[in-house]
Design goal:
This protein has 231 residues and is an alpha/beta fold. Helix content is 40%, strand content 15%. Bound molecules: NADP nicotinamide-adenine-dinucleotide phosphate (NAP).
């Protein structure tokens, strides 16, 4: 059976990943900050005969990540899916920067995925597929940056892109495929109701690209529809 660990599985794109991988019969470690409030996720787990388990995880907290590691042990992870993320401060621009919000965004969006890599790299290496995926954002592309705002969110996603490029250089030697994704502008709490695409289209597109990844995609930045995004 194929295994996946998903962070930020309580709602939005993360919850939809769980729905779709569950429908395909995967073993899923579905992680969220407050399992007691994740009603839809708990319903999926309850109907899965143990194939989907719900785990408490706050990627901001090293202790939380280590507790999860103790729960999962040495079980192989075909896909480690770093999905959890925050906006930090919407539209942050010069003259209006909330430095506390910026710090929070860096902790969650940059250090969170790295904490997960440090704890679970061996589980990915031990798996058949060896895929380490991070949901970044096109807003983190330096090559495409033309805006004058959203400094907080953009800088956090640019930083996690660099983190994953270094992780790709590191773990690529062990056959791991490290790939960052832009999920599209998606109708979630973060993306808002006016966004371009549904969670079904976003997660479905990313899943198809993940399924087709090869070692040539180690260190790549891809769109949900498979297109290449410049760093
Ligand atoms: N929606 C878009 O248009 C869009 C575009 C580009 C990139 N993205 C990226 O896609 C990913 C998913 O976004 P989304 O639209 O689904 O957002 P969302 O609806 O706001 O959901 C965010 C998820 O991340 C979790 N989370 C936040 N901080 C966390 C922490 N410290 N530890 C563990 N989980 C945490 C949330 O958990 P709680 O329920 O506990 O808060 C929630 O499950 C994010 O990385 C986001 O930056 C989204």
């Amino acid at each position: 059976m194929q295994n996946i660990l998903v962070t930020g599985a309580s709602r939005g794109i993360g919850l939809e990943f769980v729905r779709q991988y569950d429908a395909d019969g995967w073993r899923i470690f579905a992680c969220c900050r407050t399992p007691g409030q994740a009603a839809e996720l708990n319903d999926i787990a309850a109907a899965s005969a143990g194939r989907v388990s719900v785990h408490q995880l706050d990627v901001d907290q090293t202790e939380s990540v280590l507790t999860l590691k103790a729960e999962i042990g040495d079980q192989p992870l075909d896909v480690l899916l770093n999905n959890a993320g925050v906006m930090g401060q919407r539209n942050a621009a010069r003259g209006d920067i909330d430095y506390n919000a910026w710090q929070g965004a860096m902790v969650t969006n940059v250090m969170g995925p790295m904490r997960m890599v440090e704890a679970f790299a061996d589980n990915v290496v031990a798996s058949a597929q060896k895929k380490l995926i991070t949901i970044s954002s096109r807003m983190g592309s330096i090559g495409e940056a033309a805006a004058t705002n959203s400094i907080v969110y953009r800088s956090s996603k640019a930083a996690v892109n660099m983190v994953m490029k270094i992780v790709a250089n590191d773990l690529g030697a062990q056959g791991v495929i490290v790939t960052s994704f832009h999920p599209g502008w998606v109708r979630t709490d973060m993306g808002g109701s006016a966004a371009d695409i549904s969670v079904e289209e976003s997660a479905g597109g990313i899943r198809q690209v993940i399924a087709e990844l090869s070692t040539a995609d180690n260190g790549a930045f891809r769109n949900y529809d498979g297109g290449v995004i410049q760093w």
